[in-house]
Write a structure and sequence with these properties.
The chain has 685 residues and is an alpha/beta fold. Helix content is 57%, strand content 11%. It has 19 helices and 13 strands. A hairpin with a 6-residue loop joins strand 9 and strand 10. The longest helix has 58 residues. The two termini are 13 Å apart. The N terminus is likely disordered.
C-alpha cells in the first residue's frame, strides 16, 4: 500500500524538520542508530548464523581441567628445633632451609629432569614440553614446613603424573647431591686415613730401629746402670790418678812395691766399693723402673716403695763414700807407695797403663751412656708422635663411621613426601561452557559490528534525514515510498511546486519552466512525465521535453529536442487520453551531441518551445552524465532533484551548490521508493 501526503506550508515543514533534527544534534548515538536503521533484521540473521558457529568453536576449544595436589614435608634434624629450642638462630636457619628447598623444587634442573621423565612416561603429551613450560604449569607454595605443589591439566592422569615426575626428580637430584657431597667427604677422610696408617707404619719402623731390642723402660734402666758404671770408673780413675800423682811427686826411682798385707787390704776395699757401686746402680735402676711404671700415680703403696728404694740407695752411697775415704787415707799414708821387701815390684809404668785403661773404659762407658740417652729421647718423641697419629686415626675412623651411619646429617632438615599426588576424579575447572557462551557472545558482537561498520561506511543516501546538513540549499519537499511514476505523488509534488517561494518575480504570461534532474541519466524521466501529466490534469497546457541526449536512442523518432537546439521548428506531439499535454522527444542522434550543446542554444530552444504553454517540464538527464543538464537548470524557474535511497551520498553533496544556484528559484529534492524505516516517510510524503 502506498502512503502519500502533502505539506502545503513552509512553516510546517520548518517546524517538523526542526523536530526531526533535535535528537540528531543532542543524541551522540544518533549516527550509530541511523547506521543500524533497517539493518537489524540482517544483523539478527547474521548473528543467528555466527553465534551458534562461534559457540560450537568455543565449546570444542574449551577444556576440562583436572587439579592434582602433592605435599612435601621438611622435618628438622633436631626434634625440638620448632618448639622449645630457645635459640632464634636455629629456627631461622631451618626456615631458610625450607625456603631454599621450596626454591629448589621450582628450579630449572628439577623441571628439566621431570620433563625427561615425562617424555618416557607420557611421550604423547610431553612432546615439545620444556622446563619453562613445566615450571609455569606447576604452582609451588610454602606454608611453614610444608611445600604444596598443585597443577592443572586437561588429561586426568597427566596432572598427577606431572607432580610425580617433579617430586621424583627433586628427590633424585637431592639424593645425588648428597651422595656427591658424602663421597667427597668420604674420599678426603679415606685419604687422610691412609696417610695416617702410612705415617704410623713409618713411626713404628723408626721405633724399632731406634730402640732395637730395648723398649723405653728397658732403655731407661740400661741408661741408669750405665751412669752408675760411669760413676764407678770415674772414681777408679780418680784414685789411680791420685796414686800416680803421689808417686811422681816423691821423685823416687825405687820400686813401688808394698807389703802383701796392705795390698790385700786395698784390694779388698776396692772390691767392696765395686760391689757397693753395682748394688747402688741396681737399686737406682729399680727405682727408675718403679717410677716409670707408676707415672702420674700418687697412691700410698707406690710412695712407700719409692721411699724404701731411696733409703737403700742412700745407705749404699754412704758405705761407698766410707770405703773411698779409707782407700784415700791408705794411699796418703804411703801404704801404696812405700817399698816392701817381701812383695812384687810395681812400677810407675804399670800405674800409668792402669790409668790409661781406666780412662778408656770411662770414655767408652760415657759414649754408651750418651747413645742410650739419645735413643731414649728419640724413642720418647717417636712414641709421642705415634700416640698423636693413633688419636688422629681414631678420630678419622670415627668420622667415617658417622658419615656412613648418619647420611645427610650435614643439613638442618630433610624432606619427605607427606602426601603423594592426588588422583583427580572430577574436573576442577570446565571452560567449555564459558568458551561456548563467549563464542556465542562473540558471534553476536561480530554480527553487530559487521553491520555497524557497513552502516557507518555506507555511501548511499538511504534515508532522507541524512541530507539535513544541506536543507537550506536543497530542501526535501517529498519523501515517499511510491515509485517514480505514481500519479498521486506527482499531484502532491505539483502542489509543492506551485507553493514554492519565488526568489525572482516571474513575468506574467510566460510559461513556467520546471527542470527535473537526477544523478544519472534515466533516473528522473518517469517522475518528470508523471509531473507533466499532473499539471495537465489541472487543466494547464503542459509541454514535456525529454532533453536527455547523453544516451543513444535506439528507436527512430521524429524531430525533437536536438532539432530545437539547432533552431529548427518542430511541432510537439499530443498525448492520447491526456488533454493539454504535449511532448517533445530527444530527436535524432546525428543532429547534435551532448558535448556540442551551449547555454545560448538551450536558452533559445526553451524560449521557442514555451510559447503557447503554461508549464514546461524538462527531463534534463543525469547531472553526472549529461553536460547540458546544467544549462537547462540555469534556464529553469525551479529545479526538482529526483533521489532514491540507492544514490551516492557524496555525489549528492557535490551537486548541492549547483542545484541551488542554477535555477532561478532554487531546487527542491524528491525522494521516491523510500525505505519503510525512513522516519521522514510519515511527515514528508
Amino acid at each position: 500500500m502506498v502512503h502519500v501526503a502533502a505539506i502545503n506550508s513552509e512553516d510546517v515543514f520548518e517546524s517538523q524538520a526542526a523536530v526531526a533534527e533535535e535528537p540528531v544534534q543532542a543524541n551522540p548515538f544518533a549516527s550509530v542508530a541511523r547506521a543500524m536503521r533497517g539493518r537489524w533484521f540482517k544483523t539478527i540473521a547474521l548473528g543467528a548464523i555466527l553465534a551458534p558457529a562461534f559457540a560450537g568453536l568455543g565449546y570444542f576449544s574449551g577444556s576440562q581441567l583436572y587439579n592434582s595436589q602433592a605435599i612435601l614435608r621438611v622435618f628438622p634434624q633436631e626434634s625440638n628445633i620448632l618448639y622449645s629450642t630457645g635459640e632464634d638462630s636455629v629456627l631461622k636457619i631451618f626456615s631458610s632451609f625450607v625456603k631454599a628447598e621450596a626454591t629448589y623444587v621450582a628450579s630449572h634442573p628439577v623441571m628439566e629432569r621431570s620433563v625427561q621423565e615425562l617424555s618416557v612416561m607420557r611421550p604423547d603429551l610431553a612432546d615439545g614440553l620444556t622446563g619453562t613450560d613445566m615450571a609455569r604449569s606447576v604452582n609451588i607454595k610454602r606454608s611453614d614446613s610444608l611445600i604444596v605443589l598443585t597443577t592443572l591439566s586437561r588429561d586426568r592422569a597427566f596432572a598427577s603424573q606431572k607432580l610425580e615426575a617433579v617430586i621424583a626428580s627433586y628427590l633424585a637430584l637431592k639424593s645425588e647431591a648428597e651422595e656427591v657431597r658424602t663421597s667427597v667427604r668420604l674420599s678426603e677422610l679415606r685419604s687422610r686415613e691412609e696417610d695416617l696408617i702410612e705415617r704410623l707404619a713409618g713411626l713404628r719402623m723408626n721405633q724399632l730401629e731406634t730402640g732395637g731390642e730395648f723398649g723405653l723402660n728397658a732403655l731407661a734402666k740400661a741408661h741408669i746402670e750405665k751412669i752408675a758404671q760411669v760413676d764407678a770408673l770415674a772414681a777408679r780413675k780418680s784414685e789411680v790418678a791420685a796414686t800416680l800423682a803421689a808417686l811422681e811427686t816423691e821423685d823416687v826411682a825405687s820400686s813401688a812395691d808394698t807389703s802383701d798385707q796392705e795390698i790385700m787390704r786395698a784390694t779388698l776395699l776396692d772390691r767392696a766399693m765395686a760391689d757397693l757401686s753395682f748394688e747402688r746402680a741396681k737399686l737406682k735402676s729399680e727405682l727408675a723402673g718403679l717410677r716409670a711404671g707408676y707415672r702420674d700415680q700418687t697412691n700410698l703403696r707406690f710412695q712407700r716403695k719409692v721411699d724404701s728404694k731411696t733409703d737403700e740407695i742412700a745407705v749404699i752411697e754412704q758405705a761407698i763414700s766410707n770405703r773411698r775415704d779409707q782407700i784415700r787415707v791408705l794411699g796418703q799414708t804411703g801404704a801404696l807407695t812405700a817399698a816392701s821387701n817381701t812383695g812384687e815390684d810395681t812400677t810407675l809404668a804399670e800405674i800409668r797403663f792402669l790409668l790409661e785403661k781406666v780412662s778408656g773404659q770411662l770414655g767408652k762407658a760415657r759414649g754408651e751412656a750418651r747413645d742410650l740417652n739419645r735413643r731414649r729421647i728419640d724413642l720418647d718423641g717417636i712414641e709421642t708422635e705415634i700416640s698423636a697419629a693413633e688419636r688422629l686415626l681414631e678420630e678419622t675412623r670415627r668420622a667415617l663411621e658417622v658419615i656412613r651411619l648418619e647420611f645427610g646429617r650435614a643439613l638442618p632438615g630433610y624432606a619427605v613426601v607427606m602426601s603423594p599426588p592426588s588422583r583427580p576424579i572430577k574436573p576442577a575447572e570446565d571452560t567449555r561452557k564459558l568458551m561456548m557462551a563467549t563464542g556465542f557472545a562473540c558471534g553476536l558482537a561480530i554480527a553487530l559490528a559487521t553491520m555497524l561498520v557497513l552502516g557507518l561506511r555506507e555511501r548511499r543516501v538511504r534515508y532522507a534525514e541524512s541530507l539535513l546538513s544541506v536543507k537550506g540549499q536543497l530542501p526535501i519537499r517529498q519523501v515517499s515510498d511510491a515509485p517514480a511514476d505514481d500519479s498521486h505523488a506527482a499531484d502532491l509534488l505539483r502542489n509543492e511546486l506551485q507553493l514554492q517561494s519565488l526568489r525572482k518575480p516571474r513575468l506574467v504570461g510566460t510559461a513556467r519552466v520546471i527542470a527535473v534532474t537526477s544523478l544519472h541519466s534515466g533516473g528522473g524521466l518517469d517522475c518528470a512525465r508523471a509531473l507533466a501529466e499532473s499539471f495537465s490534469r489541472a487543466r494547464m497546457k503542459v509541454l514535456f521535453i525529454d532533453a536527455d541526449i547523453s544516451t543513444s536512442n535506439q528507436e527512430i523518432e521524429p524531430a525533437g529536442w536536438s532539432d530545437l537546439l539547432l533552431g529548427a521548428g518542430i511541432k510537439p506531439r499530443s498525448t492520447n487520453g491526456i488533454p493539454g499535454l504535449s511532448t517533445v522527444g530527444k530527436g535524432s542522434d546525428d543532429q547534435v551531441g551532448d558535448s556540442d550543446v551551449s547555454a545560448r542554444m538551450v536558452q533559445s530552444a526553451l524560449k521557442r518551445a514555451a510559447k503557447s504553454f503554461d508549464v514546461v517540464i524538462v527531463s534534463t538527464g543525469g547531472m553526472l552524465d549529461c553536460l547540458s543538464a546544467q544549462f537547462i537548470l540555469s534556464n529553469a524557474d525551479v529545479g526538482v532533484c529526483y533521489l532514491t535511497p540507492s544514490d551516492n551520498y557524496a555525489a549528492v553533496l557535490s551537486l548541492v551548490e549547483q542545484l541551488d544556484s542554477l535555477p532561478a528559484n532554487g531546487t527542491v529534492a524528491v525522494m521516491r521508493n523510500a525505505r519503510p524505516s525512513d522516519p521522514w516517510l510519515a511527515v514528508r510524503t
